Amino acid sequence: MTDFKTSTGNGGETHQQASGDAAVLTTNHGVPVSDNQNSLRSGERGPTLLEDFVLREKIFHFDHERIPERIVHARGSGAHGVFEATDDISDLSKAAVFTKGEKTEVFVRFSTVAGGAGSVDTPRDVRGFAVKFYTREGNWDLVGNNIPVFFIQDAIKFPDLVHAVKMEADRAYPQAGSAHDTFWDWASLMPESTHMLMWAMSDRTLPRSLRMMEGFGVHTFKLVNAEGKASFVKFHWKPRLGIQSTIWDEALKLQAADNDYHRRDLWESIDTGAFPQWDLGIQVFDQAFADAQPYDVLDATKLIPEEVVPVRIIGTMTLNRNVDNFFAETEQVAFLPTNIVPGVDFSNDPLLQGRLFSYLDTQKSRLGTTNFHQIPVNAPRCPMHNFQRDGMMQTQVPKGRANYEPNSLAAHGEEGGPRESQAGFATVNAATGPNEQGDKLRIRAETFADHFSQARLFYRSQDAHEQAHIASSFVFELSKVGVLEQVPPRMVANLRNVDEDLAKRVADGLGIDLPEKAKAAREPVDMAPSDALSIHKNMKSTLEGRSVGILIADGTDAAELDAVIKAVEAEKARAIIVAPKVGGAKLSDGTMRKADGQLAGSPSQIFDAVAIILSDAGCKMLLKEAAAVQFAMDAFGHLKAIGASAAAKPLLDKAGAEPDAGVTDLGKAFIAAAKHRFYDREPNVRMLA
Ligand code: HDE
């Protein structure tokens, strides 16, 4: 009989040697396994035996490895961290998590919405921003997005929205994108989605990094203090690195360059100790303020401008630990808006109210058991006691007879079990909003009728470049609508209620006549523009947390290269060397310098700025390399700073990178430029709507 263990060098002893002192391989039931290479057969070339419990168990388990992916937010990336409360808000909330100086463990999962678990990281899409706080009073989940408003006002529309935006039911495409018939058919028929559409068509849906986007609780919630007094609140996450987005052409090309662009970026930042941080802010207001607004604070398609109610910072979240296992943690984490702690409460927002039902159902469906709270990533870190018992996959072993209450077992010396506490969560009992009590009505409140004022507010708060991006996104997305010819004009008819100029630009871009203005349920009003809504008006001049790609080739000046690397690293940014061969390039001083990435696999879209350091000979060689020309061309087209050695000029010329404020030599000017994008360049490189 042939012994494959020795003749192939593939198993048995060889394998053990390779894994050093590794623990003994066993079955799920702890039985040591002697051969993990060959199944048990009847004769050398005969059929496999049913008796082979090792094979059977291994394949059985493998066959059941997958669980249903999330219906929305299927693709996500998670990390552990800590939240530290930095301000005393005991006058507003009694929650332990907000006690000044309190540190609370957190788990965060960022996600795209429409695509499947294996889809790309950079489609035009909303990003989920879900935070689980393991507080000493139980888990609090703030399950938000990177956009402060939502598409719909009532949870009953959610399945329609999701069906419309996901891949079309018959053909199963497109994956992870809204640029298709069914989404725009639905959206153009839902005027209440217009405000969110403005955000979705802006660069907010093209974040440069998960570390560089804001987060929002979206709904109005309540804070409750020790006296039981409630205030309304909206939650905000502000990234310490500032907000930064890519532009559309760059995001498209990122899909080809790196499917895992955001996941990798998050992992590598945490892995290298550059821990991402966000400040948690609150906008607090009362009923009198709510009543005085021209919109309803219970309507999730509306925001409260920061200029009207400033955001007060009350704590900082730091993500400092990558997961040990993606499935066990990031996939199995179960967020529930119903996970709430004393000191925080819900509002009557009808979208939030619907979510309170939905998430519990979905977790049971995904994780298969009502005991999903026992999975380590979901389990509270504080003690947990109740009389819930049994169920599939019960992993706890409750002792004694106390599985009911009231009971008098203690009188008999037995364990009686937990008791209710006055300090426990108690729903706020006060008139806190319109329709708090009343008749049962399947109706939308009249205060929810204005669908366009805040869409206009958003559009008019953007700078000219951002407005051009929004108009161009509408053109791009609507140009992907196929046979449903009625859809683009219907959408433009809605946009006329937002801004006549925007509507005209979109109609022109599509090459269609300007349609009649759609009749608004309520005429929009002009609100004072809010600078806080613009990315460009709030961008940080910084290189921190960003990366600079440095293209080199044989002959590159060693001193020049080292100076750029040093200057980039001094700014807490990453310097990443790109060369035609990953083994590296032979520099001017005769030394070999290893590359971090090979040119063909490291296009400039994965960097925030680029330096091109070439000798005359190196440049001559790269003029014949399309990837090098493209490197410069895309950096220029994506409005990035390009620092170049004098000898690299022919490459810039061939790439059409004309001199401007963002094209510099390799000195200080490059580092200063690398902190910015050159949006003024854009009219020279692309026709926007
Ligand atoms: Fe969700 N949403 N959602 N959602 N949502 C889910 O729960 C739902 C909404 C959000 O990383 C699901 O565990 C309804 C708004 C995030 O695991 C599901 C409605 C906001 C995540 C669900 C909404 C969100 C989800 C799918 C309308 C921003 C990912 C898988 C009433 C405030 C969490 C899951 C993670 C996930 C239902 C609207 C954020 C089906 C019914 C508004 C970040 O339960």
Automatic annotation (TrEMBL):
Gene3D superfamilies: 1.20.1370.20, 3.40.50.880, Catalase core domain
Catalytic activity: 2 H2O2 = O2 + 2 H2O
Sequence positions that bind heme: R70, R109, F158, R355, Y359, R366
Cofactor(s) demanded: heme
EC number: 1.11.1.6
Any GO molecular function: heme binding
InterPro entries documented for this protein: Catalase, Catalase_AS, Catalase_clade2, Catalase_clade2_helical, Catalase_core, Catalase_haem_BS, Catalase_immune_responsive, Catalase_large_C
Catalytic residues of the enzyme: H73, N145
Single GO cellular component term: cytosol
Enzyme class name: oxidoreductase
Domain Catalase core: 26-413
Short name of any one Pfam family annotated for the protein: Catalase
GO terms classed as biological process: hydrogen peroxide catabolic process; response to oxidative stress
Annotated segments matching region Disordered: 1-21, 402-421
Keywords attached to this entry: Heme, Hydrogen peroxide, Iron, Metal-binding, Oxidoreductase, Peroxidase
Similarity comment: family membership: Belongs to the catalase family. HPII subfamily.
Role noted for this protein: Decomposes hydrogen peroxide into water and oxygen; serves to protect cells from the toxic effects of hydrogen peroxide.
UniProt-recorded name of the protein: Catalase
